[in-house]
Amino acid sequence: MHTHLNEKNISPKDWWEAAREKKLAAIAITEHAEYDPGFAYSKLIELKPKNIILIPGMEAKTSAGHLLVFGTNKSLYSLPKLQQINVPIEEALEIVQRNGLLASFSHPYGYKADSTCLILGEAKTKQLLKKYRAGTEYYNGMLGSANNFIFATQWIKKLYNFFDFAEKSRAGKAFMIAGRSGKIKRKLEEISQETLERVRKGMIFSKNAAFITAGSDAHYPRSIGTAVVKLKKRPHSEKEFLEMIRGEEIIWAGPNIYAREPVDKLRKKELLEGLRYITAKKVKKKMKKPKIARKIRKKMRIKRIKKKFKALR
User: Fold this and answer.
1) Cβ neighbour number for residue 161 with a 10 Å cutoff
2) What is the C-alpha to C-alpha distance for residues 33 and 53, in angstroms, rounded to an integer?
3) Does residue 175 belong to any structural domain of this protein?
4) Is 299 helix (H, G, I), strand (E, B) or coil?
5) Which of 13, 205, 216, 230 could potentially form a cystine with 252 if both were Cys, beta carbons 3.0 to 4.6 Å apart?
6) CB contact at 8 A, 138 and 206
7) Does residue 306 belong to any structural domain of this protein?
8) What pTM did the predictor assign?
9) For residue range 222-275, what is the model confidence (pLDDT) as tens digits?
10) How far is C-alpha 162 from the chain's CA centre?
11) Could you give the CA distance from residue 58 to residue 78 in angstroms, rounded to a whole number?
12) 31-46, pLDDT tens digit by residue?
């Protein structure tokens, strides 16, 4: 219930092939509001297989973070206010309510820039859930697979193991890299634990929602279907699917335990983008530091030049 197409220029053919491989009965396209969600839907509906339901949706960018919106037909995309960047959250939820749509807060404990609980706080988010009968994303595949981003691939494993070796070995101490290696290793572990905590908090918070959703948050075909909702029976239409979600006819929500490979092996590009997302907050905090360092280095160079100039005189 959470996928993208246009943002990474994915081929509709590859997108559908991934959905077929995972044997999905239904799938939602929830392109970001700024990447023309209506166009993403129109490209996919042209190639839609007969045995898979395509749920029209979008990921609205509201004043309180990302909001997944689902409908039963393309009329959803004729509501321009929902595609407005930073649309006031209550205005977006009122539009959803008036038009008989379904809304679910994306990754409620993702990161400050896009997650409702971290922008508004739990108390205000609970009020909105109750007032508008909205849902929350119980499990987000991008966050849920974060440990895979960090530890489950060979090239990152080798890097982690090197840091572990350097921290403990005599050679590491002799070349004075043990301290740095230990720091990097601990930082990777810290990111992993922090991300798991965000997933856990999102799951616990979902008990306050009128209903729950789960989705892979796939930006590439290989990630499609890594997180799913399993219903009590197979739906036969978009309307029936959304009614079953709203009616809480859910057997399972979370990682795709029904697939042969529950969490797919991802390519380096996908892993790096995942790491960039889950470390975004930390990176932003440190962005100003290099500028200060450059100014200090510049002043020191000027002083050295002045000293040399005086010596020549």
Assistant:
1) 11
2) 22
3) no
4) helix
5) 230
6) yes
7) no
8) 0.79
9) 999 999 999 999 999 999 999 999 998 999 999 998 876 655 455 556 656 666
10) 29
11) 12
12) 999 999 999 999 999 9
The arithmetic mean of pLDDT across residues 193-210, rounded, is 91
State the CATH number of the domain containing residue 139.
Answer: 3.20.20.140
Name the H helices within the chain. Answer: 12-21, 37-45, 89-98, 116-120, 122-132, 141-144, 146-151, 154-168, 170-174, 178-205, 238-246, 268-278, 280-286, 288-312
Measure the CA–CA gap between 160 and 162, rounded to whole angstroms: 5
* Residue 36 CA, distance from chain mean position: 18
Domain containing 110 equals 12-145+205-287
Task: Provide CB contacts within 8 A for 35, sequence distance 6+.
Answer: 4, 6, 7
| pLDDT surpasses 60 at 173 | no
- Residue of 176, 177, 148 whose CA lies nearest to 162: 177
The answer to whether 47 touches 256, Cβ cutoff 8 Å, is no
Domain membership of residue 250 (yes or no) is: yes
Place of tokens 């922090």: 194
**Measured distance between the N- and C-terminal CA atoms of the chain, rounded to whole angstroms:** 74
Cβ(134)–Cβ(93) under 8 Å? yes
Distance CA 103, CA 94 (A): 10
Number of structural domains in the chain: 1
Q: Among residues 278, 281, 112, which one has the least CA distance to residue 188?
A: 278
| pLDDT digits 0-9 by tens, 97-136 | 999 999 999 999 998 889 999 999 999 999 999 999 999 9
- Residue 300 domain-assigned (yes or no): no
Q: What is the CA radius of gyration of the chain?
A: 23
Cα dihedral 205, 241, 131, 144, rounded to 10, equals 20
